[in-house]
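Methods — Computational structure assignment.
A single polypeptide chain was analysed. Its primary sequence is given first, followed by the predicted tertiary structure written as C-alpha cells.
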Amino acid sequence: MWSGSTASRRWRTGGLIAIPPNPRSELDHAADEFNLVRPRLFGIAYRMLGSASEAEDIVQDVWLRWQAYDRSTVENTAAFLSTTTTRLAINAGQSARARHETYIGPWLPEPVDTSADPALGAVRGEALGFAVLLLLEKLSPTERAAYVLRESFDYPYRQIGEIIEVTEANARQLVTRARKHIAAESSAPVSTSDHRRLLTAFVDAAQTGDLEALTALLTADVVSNSDGGGVKDVLAARIPIMGDERVAKFVAAFSSHFWTGAQITWVQANGAPAILLSRDGVRYTLLAATATPSGITHLHWVMNPTKLEGFSRRSAAATAEDSTRG
C-alpha cells in the first residue's frame, strides 16, 4: 500500500502506556485523491496508446510525480493529474507510432477486459473499440488527445486547449478534424445482442470451414488483421486479408487445426463481445470483430502472447486490491 506513516507518540496514563491512533499522513491523503481519478487517468492513457501495459506505466509515472510534487500549489487535483497524464501520453505516443511502423505484421491494440473494469468507460465509451483505436493511430498524438478528451470524457474545449497547450479555437479545430476522419471511415454500430449473434454465427461457420456461411456474414470490403508480433510459433498472417471471399477462404483454410481442442470463452473486450481461445489452459487468441448492420467489417485476431497476458492481468487487477497500494 502507499504509505506515509507518522510516528506514534506515547504517554503514561495510570502507569500504562497509551498509543493513540496515528493521524492519516498527508501522503495518505494524496493517495486517496489520486485513486479517485485513477480510472480516468488509465482511460485517457489507454485510448491514446492502445496499450494497457503502457497506460499502466503512464499512470504509475503520474503517481510518482504527484507523490513528489508540491501539492499545496495545486488548486484542482483532477485537472492537474489529467493534464500530466495527457502530456506524458502525447510524448509516449510519438515513440509508439515509430514502433508500430516497424512492428512485424499488423499491429492491433492490446485488449482490455471491460466487464471486469467497467470504470474504463468513464463518462462515455467512445474511442474504446478496436476499429476506432486503429483509426486514431492515423492521427497525430495531439489530435488524438483532443478527440479522446472531448469524445470520451466530455472535457470543455477551453480545458482541452490548456492541457495540450493550444488555444480554445485550435482545440475545437483538432476535435472537428478528428471527428471527420473517424466518421469518414466508420460504419454504424449494432446492438450488443446483434454483435454477439454475428460473432457466434461466424465462430460456428469458422469451425466447420463453411465458405458460404462465412461469406454471408462478411461485408464485401471486410478486413482481417492478425497480430502475432512476429513471435515464433504464432501462426498469424503477416499482412491484412481483404475482401469477403478472400477472408472466408483464409478462415476456412485453417479451420481443421486452429479450433481443434479449443476452449471458447466469451468475454467483453474493449466494450464489445469477443471470444478468448485457449488450449490446455493456455490462451492463444482473442478474436474481436467490428459489426455493422451490413455484417462484419473487421476481424481482429490478437495472437501476440504478450498482449494476451495483458488482458488477463488487467482482469485480475480489477478484482484485486489496487496495485499501487503495496
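Note: The chain is about 50% helix and 15% strand.
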